[in-house]
């Protein structure tokens, strides 16, 4: 492993921030197998196993080598005190020497990821009134998170704002809850602009961040007075010609090799978004020549980032860039948009980010690079989606079939058309089998849907209690980029969305699609 690879892996382990106390144990299969129970003294081993095990439950030889490179020495050190034997590190070394990936199931403590009380209380009524599958959202949870963001960034003058990324959960009822909390809307398409408009948002309540944008969307955004965020230098002339240069304009910055991105969003150098370091100052000058008078700066370089330091570094990058552009062009920024991408802990053993600490770090950078450089005040804003609604949405689905083949399968009445993240990114979503929270997880299943695609799986090799048809599965953390990514392949219909209101009432906020909806856009066939 090269030093760079080692650094990258160490950074990944740090970013995963695995808390071993939420792991009940790990089971490794095969000749070198065995069970490592979570007992005092083997936290580091559990952390390493959890860090190198893929979401579908395997450790590859390369993964084992990486794990050894990070922790091998310290564990070997411990082993010396125990007469040179260290079963967990021995096992890893065997996997590293072998040629094939080894199954490794991580058993998580259910108690570390319980369903919120409000959802638990609402589910019996919801299940009585509405057929599965459905999404259910916790309004009070969303409000509490919105308030935590406002509180953490209260130092921002004149006032912090999160422009909720509508694409994360494009249900107008949810966007309205966030409007009520004082959030703006970050829109990326005509439909999202229309949602914001119909909710009575206008002017600088709306941020329009799109790419490969059609003229009509710029025209609409300009008519609404939205803050328009341009994704490319060529769009300066394009918007001027088609909609007129707005008085306030923003540019999305792509730092290329200066930042590394992450697994979901990718390497900035390969990203289609934003203006390069060489392009950005000139873009502001050109916009100014065309009549722009006020300016914003934006970036979005990560997705689901749990590494607090990385989030701070993004702010430092933008603050320094703002100072540089100010130096080169003389323009003063109205606002700096740090983007979204604040992560949530999908796995029970991952602690949430310490938002207050992240905000304090960003505040420190603001003082150093904005205030002390004499270019303040600049309003700091974000456009988080996942962090706001993600943990407060749940996909509820019923078990149709349990089948035993080369593996054991649980077939749900939801499929990847309802929740695509596991198939798309191999994403982990925690699963609670309702009413079986305290049962032993004595079986390992692939949890599937009914789509004719073998990657239609919500979980692979997932330790669960014994499941029977009719059991209710609650899939956690699906309040963002969940329903929103739904599609209709195989004639699968989008589910309903329910809201548990702050008063504890269950309200349907979007009905399920019907076959009539599915066929509604076809013309002249009957
Ligand atoms: C431009 C932009 N802003 C904000 C977001 C929201 O990201 P997240 O939900 O991870 O905060 C996205 C997500 O794709 C995005 O593309």
List the helices and strands and how they pair.
Blueprint: H1 3-16, E1 23-28, E2 34-37, H2 43-52, E3 58-59, H3 61-81, H4 87-97, E4 102-108, H5 117-129, E5 134-138, H6 139-152, E6 161-165, H7 172-180, E7 184-187, H8 190-198, E8 206-209, H9 215-224, E9 227-230, H10 234-242, E10 248-253, H11 277-289, E11 294-299, H12 308-329, E12 333-337, H13 355-371, E13 379-382, H14 386-389, E14 393-404, E15 408-412, H15 421-425, E16 431-433, E17 443-448, E18 457-464, E19 472-475, E20 496-500, E21 506-510, H16 515-519
Parallel strand pairs: 5-20, 6-7, 6-13, 7-8, 8-9, 9-10, 10-11, 11-12, 12-13, 15-17
Antiparallel strand pairs: 1-2, 1-4, 3-4, 5-14, 14-15, 14-19, 16-19, 17-18, 20-21
Can you describe what's shown?
With 526 residues, this protein is of the alpha/beta class. It folds into three domains: 106 residues, no CATH class; 154 residues, Lyase, Ornithine Decarboxylase, Chain A, domain 1; 232 residues, TIM Barrel (Alpha-Beta Barrel). It has 16 helices and 21 strands. The strands form three sheets. Strands 5, 14, 15, 16, 17, 18, 19, 20 and 21 form a nine-stranded mixed sheet that branches. An eight-stranded parallel β-barrel has the order 6-7-8-9-10-11-12-13, surrounded by six helices. Strand 17 and strand 18 form a beta hairpin. Helix 12 runs parallel beside helix 13. The longest helix is centred in the middle third of the chain and has 22 residues. The radius of gyration is 25 Å and the shape is globular. Bound molecules: pyridoxal-5'-phosphate. The site of pyridoxal-5'-phosphate has 18 residues, from helix 14.
């Amino acid at each position: 492993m090269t030093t760079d690879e080692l650094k990258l892996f160490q950074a990944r382990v740090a970013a995963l921030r695995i808390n071993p106390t939420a792991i009940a144990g790990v089971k490794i299969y095969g000749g070198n197998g065995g069970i490592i129970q979570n007992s005092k003294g083997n936290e580091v081993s559990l952390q390493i196993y959890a860090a190198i095990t893929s979401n579908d439950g395997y450790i590859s030889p390369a993964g084992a080598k990486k794990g050894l490179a990070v922790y091998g020495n310290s564990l070997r050190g411990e082993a010396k005190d125990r007469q040179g034997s260290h079963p967990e590190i021995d096992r890893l070394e065997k996997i590293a020497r072998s040629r094939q990936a080894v199954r490794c199931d991580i058993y998580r403590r259910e108690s570390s990821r319980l369903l919120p009380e409000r959802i638990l209380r609402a589910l019996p009524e919801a299940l009585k009134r509405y057929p599965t599958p459905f999404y259910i959202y916790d309004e009070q949870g969303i409000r509490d998170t919105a308030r935590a963001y406002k509180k953490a960034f209260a130092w921002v003058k004149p006032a912090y704002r999160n422009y909720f990324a509508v694409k994360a959960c494009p249900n107008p009822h949810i966007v309205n809850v966030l409007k009520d909390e004082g959030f703006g809307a970050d829109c990326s398409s005509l439909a999202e602009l229309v949602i914001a408009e119909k909710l009575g948002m206008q002017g600088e309540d709306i941020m329009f961040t799109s790419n490969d944008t059609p003229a009509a969307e710029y025209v609409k955004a300009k008519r609404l007075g939205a803050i328009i965020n341009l994704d490319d230098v060529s769009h300066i002339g394009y918007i001027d010609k088609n909609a007129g240069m707005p008085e306030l304009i923003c540019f999305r910055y792509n730092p290329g090799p200066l930042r590394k991105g992450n697994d979901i969003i990718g390497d900035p150098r390969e990203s289609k978004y934003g203006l390069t370091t060489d392009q950005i100052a000139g873009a502001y000058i050109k916009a100014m020549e065309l009549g722009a008078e006020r300016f914003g700066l934006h970036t979005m370089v990560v997705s689901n980032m749990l590494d607090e330091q990385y989030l701070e570094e993004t702010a430092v990058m933008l603050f320094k860039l703002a100072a540089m552009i100010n130096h080169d062009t003389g323009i003063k920024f109205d606002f700096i948009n740090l983007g979204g991408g604040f992560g949530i802990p999908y796995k029970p053993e991952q602690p949430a980010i310490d938002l207050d600490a992240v905000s304090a770090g960003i505040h420190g950078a603001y003082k150093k690079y904005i205030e002390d450089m004499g270019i303040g005040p600049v309003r700091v804003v974000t456009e988080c989606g996942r962090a706001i609604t993600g943990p407060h949405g749940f996909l509820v689905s019923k078990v149709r079939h349990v089948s035993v083949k080369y593996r054991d399968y649980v077939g749900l009445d939801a499929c990847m058309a309802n929740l695509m993240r596991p198939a798309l990114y191999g994403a982990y979503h925690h699963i609670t089998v309702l009413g079986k929270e305290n049962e032993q997880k004595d079986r390992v299943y692939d949890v599937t849907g009914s789509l004719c695609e073998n990657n239609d799986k919500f979980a692979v090799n997932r330790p669960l209690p014994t499941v029977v048809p009719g059991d209710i599965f609650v899939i956690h953390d699906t309040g963002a980029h969940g329903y929103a990514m739904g599609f209709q392949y195989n004639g699968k219909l989008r589910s309903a969305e329910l809201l548990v209101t702050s008063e504890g009432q269950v309200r349907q906020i979007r009905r399920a699609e019907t076959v009539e909806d599915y066929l509604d856009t076809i013309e002249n066939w009957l």
